[in-house]
From TrEMBL:
Keywords assigned: DNA-binding, Transcription, Transcription regulation
Coiled-coil portions: none
Source species: Trinickia terrae
Molecular function GO labels: DNA binding; DNA-binding transcription factor activity
Lineage: Bacteria, Pseudomonadati, Pseudomonadota, Betaproteobacteria, Burkholderiales
Name the record gives this protein: MerR family transcriptional regulator
CDD domains noted in UniProt: HTH_YyaN
SMART domains xrefs: HTH_MERR
Pfam family, one: MerR-DNA-bind
InterPro entries, sorted: DNA-bd_dom_put_sf, MerR-type_HTH_dom, MerR_fam, Tscrpt_reg_MerR_DNA-bd
Length: 156
């Protein structure tokens, strides 16, 4: 393995701690890696690419159990390609739903920013529109939002 990475090099190359690398190996997310005669781990470029893909799954909200299931399917080889594709398609759908929820929440935040800017202008007398700004319910698709905060949480 001429391009092998030590655990420290792998950690630096991926932004994952050495502790996490050991944990991922123990949890079955990373296959058993090659070792030197002294027992030090040696990671290949393929190991690095796989770990970076796992980090994408993690960053997009896939739980460890889902990552483990995917890793197990991968370890079983080409016979599981269909299952892996279906698993990733389902995860993609979940990520798209999260993105839509974030967009909806961002629209609501943007509306509040506009509201507070107008309120500030009213309070300082710099508002060109003499009509009083009133706090009204957000007009974004609130019916699709999952309740995440209440007035008591300081959402006004």
């Amino acid at each position: 393995m001429s391009n092998a990475l030590t655990i420290g090099q792998m950690a630096a190359a991926t932004g994952v701690s050495t502790h996490t690398l050991r944990y991922y190996e123990q949890a079955g997310l990373i296959r058993a890696v090659a070792r030197t005669e002294a027992g030090h781990r040696l990671y290949s470029g393929a190991d690095r690419d796989w770990l970076l893909f796992l980090m994408r799954l993690k960053a997009t909200g896939m739980p460890i159990a889902g990552m483990q299931a995917f890793a197990e399917l991968r370890a079983r080889g080409d016979a599981t390609v269909h299952e892996r594709r279906e698993m990733l398609a389902a995860h993609r759908d979940a990520v798209l739903a999260q993105i839509e929820q974030l967009r909806t929440n961002l629209e609501a935040i943007d509306e509040k920013i506009v509201y507070y800017a107008a309120l500030e202008a009213d309070m300082t007398g710099t508002n060109d529109n003499p009509q009083t700004v009133k706090d009204s319910p957000w007009k974004t698709r609130m019916h699709t939002l999952k309740p995440t905060a209440t007035h008591e949480d300081g959402t006004s």
